[in-house]
Amino acid sequence: VQLQASGGGLVQPGGSLRLSCAASGFTLDYYAIGWFRQAPGNEREGISCISVSDGSTIYAESVKGRFAISRDNFKNTNLQMNSLKPEDTAVYYCAASPSVDYCSLYSQWYDHWGQGTQVTVSS
Predict the structure, then answer these.
(1) d(CA 65, CA 85)
(2) Is 78 left (phi over 0), alpha (psi -120 to 50) or beta?
(3) CB distance 95 to 107 below 8 Å
(4) Is the pLDDT at 1 greater than 80, yes or no?
(5) pLDDT tier at 17, thresholds 50, 70, 90
C-alpha cells in the first residue's frame, strides 16, 4: 500500500493549489482518505477527509469554505485549496484508513501515509 501526495508549490496569498493523493499497488475502494498538514514546530493537523460509502466530508474550521476534497476515481483523491493564506504553509500529507462508512481528522485513525508535499504561501 503506497500513497503519494503531489501538487504542492509556492503560491501567493489568495492563490490556489490542487493537491492529489495517488494510490499505487491498490485501489481506494475501501479506504477513507484524510489530508493532514504539519508546519514547523506544530503538531500534525487534520484538515479534511472523505468517506467511501456516501462521499461525506469533514473539514477543519481553519480550512472550511476554502478547501474542497474530492475523489475523481478510486485511484486519486484531490484537495482543492483556494484563498490560500500564509498560515496554510506546511507540508501536506494524505493518509488512508480501511473504512467504508466513516472518515476522521484524527491521525491515529489512519494506517497508511504518503510522503508529504510542501505548500508555501508567500508574497
Answers:
(1) 13
(2) beta
(3) yes
(4) no
(5) very high
CA distance 59 to 68: 8
CB 31 within 8 A of CB 98: yes
Distance CA 105, CA 13 (A): 25
Question: What's the grid cell of residue 72?
Answer: 475523481
Give the three cell numbers for residue 60: 477543519
Q: Side chain identity at 14, as an amino acid letter? A: G
DSSP 86: G
∠113-39-18 over CA atoms, to 5°?
65
C-alpha cell at 68: 474542497
- Encoded amino acid at 21, one letter: C
Q: Over the stretch 53-87, which tens digit does the pLDDT of each residue have?
A: 888 999 999 999 999 999 887 788 999 999 999 99
Distance CA(65)–CA(22), nearest Å, equals 24
